[in-house]
C-alpha cells in the first residue's frame, strides 16, 4: 500500500504512473481528494473543539471554586463533547474510505521499468546458453510424460478435475530431486535460511502481501470455524508475513529466506489458456526466495535474488533468458519485476519459470514490517522482495523437453544425478 502523505503530495505523478500501467487513474483515485480534504477538515475541527473544551473545563472549575454558577458553561462543554464524538465517527468513516481507496491502488513502477501495455513490450536483459539441437522433432512434455509413464493427467482428472497431475516413479522422484537440489543450492551456496511455513493462512496474511482484497477470486478459501483460511498461492505469503507487526534489528538485514511449499491457485481468469500439460495447474510445487532489506539496498538485492534463481537453470544446463516486465505486465504489488524464462524445444518458445520482484515498502506498509537502524530512534519500513527459485513443475517439464533423446528416454542433468540415483529416465514397465 502506498503512503497516504505520498499520495496526497504526488497525486499527479501517481496518476501518470497508473496510466503507464494501462489503468484508469481517474477511476482509481476519483474520490481521494474529496475524502482526504474533508477528513483533514474534520480532524482540524476536532482539535479546535478539544482545545476549547479543555479551556471551558478549566473555567468551569474556576467558577465552581469561586461559588459562581457554571451551568451555562457546563452545557456548552456537553455540546462540544457530543460534537467531538460525532466528528470522530465521521473521521473514522473517512479513514475507512481512504484505506479502501489506497488498498486498491497498485504499486508505482520504478523509473527503470519500460513503459508498455502487454508482454510484447517487455525488455530482454540477457540470455544464457543455447537451445539444444535435435536430429528429430522434439516432443512437448505432455507427450513425453505419457510415453514414459511418469505423468498421468487422466487419473488426476478422475481424482480432482482438470489442471491437476499425478507423477509416477521417476517422475515423482524428479519432482522431489529438483526441490531438494534447489534448496541445497540456495541454503549452502546462496546464503538463504530454509523455513517450512504453514500452507493455510488467515486473511491478514493474504492482505499483508496484497492478494486480498483485490484477488480473492484467484484463491482457494477454506471455512475454518468463525474465520476463513486460504490455501497459499505461493510461499511468499506465509514467509513474508512471518514478520508482520514486528520490528527487525538492522544487523539482521538483509534477511534471506527460502521455502519449499505446494501452491494452490484457482486462476479463474486463465481457463482456455495453457490447457495442455502442466504449465498452469491448480496445485504445483515451488521453491520461493524472500528477502527483507534496508530501502537503499533493495535494488542491489533484486539483482542478487534474480541471479540466484537464474543460477539454478544454469546448473541444470537449461537455455534461459531474463526480461524486465513493462509497466502494463507487472503484478499489483511490484515496483519492478524480472521474469526468468526457460526455453522449451517441444513447444518452440520461452516460458516464464520465475518472477523476481522488488515491492519496495508496499507490502511492508500493509503488513507493518519495520526495522530500526543502529543508534536510531524511529523505526522504518523494510523493503521486501521475492522470486521463484524455481517453480518445480516447470523445471520438471523443461528437463523433459530439453533432455529428450531419440529413443524416447530422457537424460538426467548431471547436477541432479546424485539426487535421482540414475542418469536416465526410461519408459515404465
Sheet with the most strands? 8 strands, mixed
Name the CATH homologous superfamily of the largest domain. Bira Bifunctional Protein, Domain 2
Amino- and carboxy-terminal Cα gap: 55 Å
Number of domains: 2
Q: What's the β-strand tally?
A: 18
Percent helix: 40-55%
Low-pLDDT regions: none
CATH fold name of the largest domain, please? BirA Bifunctional Protein, domain 2
Read across the widest sheet, the strand sequence of neighbours is 1-11-12-13-16-10-9-4
State which percent range the strand residues make up. Answer: 15-25%
According to CATH, what is the class of the largest domain? Alpha Beta
Radius of gyration: 27 Å
From the spread of the alpha carbons, the general shape counts as: elongated
Class inferred from helices and paired strands: alpha+beta
Mean pLDDT: 96
Examine the secondary-structure arrangement and name the CATH architecture of the largest domain. 2-Layer Sandwich
**Number of helical elements:** 14
Compact summary:
The protein has 429 residues and is an alpha+beta fold.
Task: Spell out the blueprint of helices and strands.
Blueprint: H1 4-9, H2 11-20, H3 25-28, H4 32-65, H5 71-102, E1 123-128, H6 141-148, E2 151-152, H7 153-160, E3 166-167, H8 169-188, E4 193-194, E5 200-202, H9 203-209, E6 220-224, E7 227-231, H10 236-240, E8 246-249, E9 255-264, E10 283-293, H11 298-315, E11 320-324, E12 336-344, E13 349-358, H12 362-367, E14 369-372, E15 380-381, E16 383-391, H13 392-402, E17 410-411, H14 417-420, E18 424-425
Parallel strand pairs: 4-9, 8-14
Antiparallel strand pairs: 1-11, 2-3, 5-7, 6-7, 9-10, 10-16, 11-12, 12-13, 13-16, 14-15, 17-18
Helix pairs in contact: 4-5, 6-13, 8-13
